[in-house]
């Protein structure tokens, strides 16, 4: 089938990382997956949550939000509504888990790295773009700590990236834009480390249940997509060495 943006079914959207987007954050990147754009800022704080004090370990956590006009129609800020929605809670917890999966918290010292992921424009895959960009912002912040002599060892154990896959009109495909996601029979998100291990897999059949063979096809698409994202992350970070 012909996709709305003419891509092959196994092709990522155009992915771009603009490092140093925010001049104040210890790590900052504007990540683009096609028309989806997420600003990921990493802040280093010389403290940990109360439940971790005195343990000598650090913490990595995340917050996620969408600007009011990131989508086709304006949505009110959650801060104005007075509560954070369930979807936001789910996504920011997912981002935090994904990053902690590749960081040795014992080597971080008693400090917190807070990643703020703000969606500037949404066209599908905001959570996967957030995870992929948040990793780049995290690495940038960790390298700054190392340059300043605040870390004796690199706490990174691996890289991490995320991508969406789905079945649209019976066809498995990689990295769905909004139009495809809205029509998908099956919608899945994969979070994968650089060595090919899964941090999280989220999958839902919107209409007909999917088969084991279809699951395998989607898994292979996701693994290939995350490998390519890992290469793009490394290229972007290499420019900042």
From TrEMBL:
PROSITE patterns (UniProt xref): RIBONUCLEASE_PH
InterPro entries cross-referenced by the UniProt entry: ExoRNase_PH_dom1 (IPR001247), ExoRNase_PH_dom2 (IPR015847), ExoRNase_PH_dom2_sf (IPR036345), PNPase/RNase_PH_dom_sf (IPR027408), Ribosomal_Su5_D2-typ_SF (IPR020568), RNase_PH (IPR050080), RNase_PH_bac-type (IPR002381), RNase_PH_CS (IPR018336)
Gene Ontology biological process terms, A to Z: rRNA 3'-end processing; rRNA catabolic process; tRNA processing
Signal peptide: none
Catalytic activity: tRNA(n+1) + phosphate = tRNA(n) + a ribonucleoside 5'-diphosphate
Keywords: Nucleotidyltransferase, RNA-binding, rRNA processing, Transferase, tRNA processing, tRNA-binding
Residues bound to phosphate: 87, 125-127
GO terms of molecular function: 3'-5'-RNA exonuclease activity; tRNA binding; tRNA nucleotidyltransferase activity
EC number(s) stated in the UniProt entry for this protein: 2.7.7.56
Domain (Exoribonuclease phosphorolytic): residue spans on this chain: 11-141, 159-224
NCBIfam families: RNasePH
Purpose of the protein: Phosphorolytic 3'-5' exoribonuclease that plays an important role in tRNA 3'-end maturation. Removes nucleotide residues following the 3'-CCA terminus of tRNAs; can also add nucleotides to the ends of RNA molecules by using nucleoside diphosphates as substrates, but this may not be physiologically important. Probably plays a role in initiation of 16S rRNA degradation (leading to ribosome degradation) during starvation.
Assembly behavior: Homohexameric ring arranged as a trimer of dimers.
Family listed: Belongs to the RNase PH family.
Name by which UniProt lists this protein: Ribonuclease PH
Organism from which the protein derives: Geothermobacter hydrogeniphilus
Gene: rph
């Amino acid at each position: 089938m012909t996709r709305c943006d003419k891509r092959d079914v196994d092709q990522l959207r155009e992915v771009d990382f603009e490092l140093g987007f925010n001049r104040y954050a210890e790590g900052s990147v504007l990540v683009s997956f096609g028309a989806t754009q997420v600003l990921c800022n990493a802040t280093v704080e010389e403290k940990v949550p109360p439940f971790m004090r005195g343990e000598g370990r650090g913490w990595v956590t995340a917050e996620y939000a969408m600007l009011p006009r990131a989508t086709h129609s304006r949505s009110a800020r959650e801060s104005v509504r007075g509560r954070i929605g369930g979807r936001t809670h789910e996504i920011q917890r997912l981002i935090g888990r994904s990053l902690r999966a590749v960081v040795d918290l014992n080597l971080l010292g008693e400090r917190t790295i807070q990643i703020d992921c703000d969606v500037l424009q949404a066209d599908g895959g905001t959570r996967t773009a957030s995870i992929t960009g948040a990793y780049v912002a995290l690495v940038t912040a960790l390298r700054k700590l190392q340059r300043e002599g605040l870390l004796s060892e690199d706490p990174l154990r691996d890289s991490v990236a995320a991508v969406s896959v789905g079945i649209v009109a019976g066809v498995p495909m990689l990295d769905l834009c909004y139009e495809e996601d809205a029509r998908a029979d099956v919608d899945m998100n994969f979070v994968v480390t650089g060595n090919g291990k899964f941090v999280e897999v989220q999958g839902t059949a919107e209409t007909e249940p999917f088969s084991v063979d279809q699951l395998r096809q989607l898994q292979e698409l996701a693994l290939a997509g995350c490998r390519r994202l890992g290469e793009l992350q490394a290229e972007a970070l290499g420019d900042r060495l």
